[in-house]
Target: 2-isopropylmalate synthase
Amino acid sequence: MSTSEPDVSGPAHVTRDCPASIADAAIAPPAPGEHVRIFDTSLRDGEQSPGCSMTAPQKLRFAHALSELGVDVIEVGFPASSVAEIDAGRAIAREVRGSTLAALARCHAGDIEAAARTLDAARAARLHVFISTSPLHREHKLGLSREQVIERAVMGVELARRHFDDVEFSAEDALRTEPDFLAEICGAAVAAGATTLNIPDTVGYTTPAEIRALFEYLRANVRDAHRAVFSAHCHDDLGLAVANSLAAIEGGARQVECTINGIGERAGNCALEELVMALNVRSGYFDARTRIDTRRLLPTSRLLSRITGMQVQRNKAIVGQNAFAHESGIHQHGMLKHRGTYEIMRPEDVGWVQSQIVLGRHSGRAALSDRLQSLGFALDEARLNQVFAGFKTLAEKKREVFDADLEALVLGTDAPTLHGHRLLHLHVSTGVGDDSLPTASVRLLDADGGQVSEAAVGDGPVHALFAALARATGIALHIDSYQVSSVTTGDDAQGQASVTARVDGAELSGSGTSTDILEASAHAWLEIANRVSRTRAAAPSPQRIAATA
Ligand SMILES: CC(=O)SCCNC(=O)CCNC(=O)[C@H](O)C(C)(C)COP(=O)(O)OP(=O)(O)OC[C@H]1O[C@@H](n2cnc3c(N)ncnc32)[C@H](O)[C@@H]1OP(=O)(O)O
Ligand SMILES: CC(C)C(=O)C(=O)O
Model:
């Protein structure tokens, strides 16, 4: 192998020619408000990411989620790659409705037959055939001349059309292909029956201005261009996949291929959630619509992370944990006055419950005071300043200051549970077998020093325990999440239980630690319940982030 730098740029005239061609191109801009098809390839290109392979049941589940999201086309896989891929695709084709189902094939008879067999039962099916068109790929990968590549492409499209009316042709590595040859092969594909022309930036090499120019050029120079929908498929090697896809839309693309969380070969593909929200938030600028139900973006992203085990980075746009979290005082102060100051979209519109004000070393008095009010503490200015000084000292030591820390700061060193109900006794029995039911009994010490005992049954021991605590305290919590993790090691490891609950429209969390995970769970539940009873006792209602106009 040569040690010199590989020439990856393709022919020098590729980038030089496009702008000149645009000047010649007398084409109408895309009609305003046009629909842009969303083609999701998480199950095909996404699955090509190392570490992202999915089982057949996982693919089926995710395909249902994509259809519920409102994706126009779901690429179910590359059937020629294995029997398991065919079986997974067939299961999707039997069940999933509401989206067109596509399968990828090389310009090979065997691949096309396998893809067609896979989509047999689909209500709406598309065959997607591809071949490389760039000089680098033609010479080094395929060993084919321009004419031979066109011949193969035409053969592939014609064979695909024998199975389905909906046929997509992709010119792999299109952005490093000579524009005149690209226009020629696209025209040949349309003549052979292709209804969608996909122009992939296979190696993530292009820039927004360049890809826009290329789409404008192709719309003007491909023979019978009006008979096909132009599509973009951008990779993220330079972090430009979303920007390039948006530019392609400006150039006339009316289908964009993307993946949830941007998974895909190498650095990934255009992230569906980012592209859709860019079109949505800047609708006046792009004037192009999708039919995606944006409130399903976060749940779909989370489902994919759970299935693949590939976590989304915290600062990822739209679906990352920090996407709607504010930690610095100046931003928090602005957010409390009007959330439009630091948010360009509503978290609720993409599936989050609400924005988050995270208290840490950069926070100021406005955010601290707001959080204290929502915890039921109304402090005068002098006391607030005192607590603020303690808060800053604590925040220097901790990354994030939690509600329980604030309660300790205001109330003194006692654990927060001392200021509400406290667990004295707990007994839980599990219910394995026909006649037994999981049962829990609890005895609590209340804030006035009295005792209260209650028992309850449930679907499982934790459910029974939480039901008994609800009876004893008179507080009903809607549990959103419950997790137990080990915080030390060995046989006597401490377990930490974390509970998140929604109460009176707010999301509250509590945690408890013990060598007994049921006791830890009871402490976590009581931490939230005690906060609720104190908040309810301390009217007026908490200040909320002002709604965006
Ligand atoms: C840009 C993209 O994302 S393309 C999609 C990439 N996805 C995948 O490759 C996943 C599925 N792939 C596979 O399972 C395997 O590669 C298979 C089963 C398809 C093929 O396996 P093999 O027959 O062992 O071939 P191998 O993968 O080593 O090489 C690819 C062959 O396809 C040929 N080829 C590549 N693209 C095309 C095309 N679009 N049309 C026709 N032939 C093509 C190559 O020239 C090579 O042919 P050769 O074996 O005659 O040299
Ligand atoms: C096969 C095509 C669409 C592709 O995945 C690419 O070129 O990246």
